[in-house]
Amino acid sequence: MDNGTLRDTFANLYGDPAEEPALFFAPGRVNLIGEHTDYNQGYVLPCALSFGTYLLVRRNRSGNCHFSSENERKSFTIPLHALTEKKGRHWVNYPLGVMQQLVLKGMELEEGFDFYYSGDIPGGAGLSSSASVEMVTAVALNELCSLDIDRVELIKLCQKAENDFVGVNCGIMDQFIVGKARENHALFLNCGTLQYRHVPFVIRGYQLLIANTNKKRSLDGSIYNQRVAECRSALEYFRASRMLGSLTELSVETFEKENSRIKDPVILKRARHVVTENRRVLESVKALMNNEYEDVGRLMVESHRSLKNDYEVTGKELDALVEAALDVEGTLGARMTGAGLGGCTVNLVKSDQVERFMEQAGSAYHSLTGLKADFYVPGIAGAAGRIG
Ligand code: GLA
User: pTM here?
Assistant: First the structure.
């Protein structure tokens, strides 16, 4: 990202009065393991990406908020009194949802703001461009309006914006990693208690590589909300016999003993994914700390298979890209990352095999699906904040 070009575009859009806009950045994320566990109060292990969303913002005296983005064709001018109205299915709902939550927390809007976003996270790729836009907006307004809201509160408020305003019942993983990441570390988070630990993520001789199926997915889709609902129904089957707040309170062993209570075979599969995935996160953290990288890779593959067979959120493109990856010599592990049904895979690849991986997996994927995959070798970034 070129800071100068961004500021020039801002000046062209909004004019160049005395007050310089402030520059903020929020990363995207990739989840290493722990998929669809967050809204079940379970464990996750994401890390933040060196690509993300930049935001230039400053106050104006117009009584309107202006929203433009380098990545979106449509810009918006919204009077302060109309900020709480949802705008169809447009991107601006992410910042609007956040502003609505901030107003509920006491933000007073007497004057407007000029916002200019620019992101280098591929859209619809499952790398959390939405949480990145939400968090960059929240962090910026928190600072510019001296709201003094604590970081975890900001994270919760962004999740609420997505739940209530955008209408996706997402868990807290994406906002949490964007808001609390540490460079070169993964974040081991208990989504029930919000206790977390940064785990060093440097695997000597191996590289984190993201592969994009280029099959777009949209998170306002009903499948995600349907899975959330299916997990709730799974819980209902246990309620008669024990007090259970969430599926992840069950160990794999208890689940195996008691799962005949779940009478619906589809719900049984969904619950099995959640319970086993939660265990896989714990095992992955242990393996990472003990430098047992083969185990990390194996757990990633098991995670993908569980998401494919039990949770049914992979689809032919993600499956093809994972299988293609596993055929390349020197690949430790590969799995889908994020909500699924398109988007990206995350891979651990021997550093000296990265070129070969892209060539071989790319061409196998193309023959299997007719689609061209894109590959990214990201850095592991720190949390959202002001950068200029
Ligand atoms: C999306 C949601 C997250 C999480 C993942 C699946 O990214 O935003 O809260 O549920 O899917 O693990």
Answer: 0.96
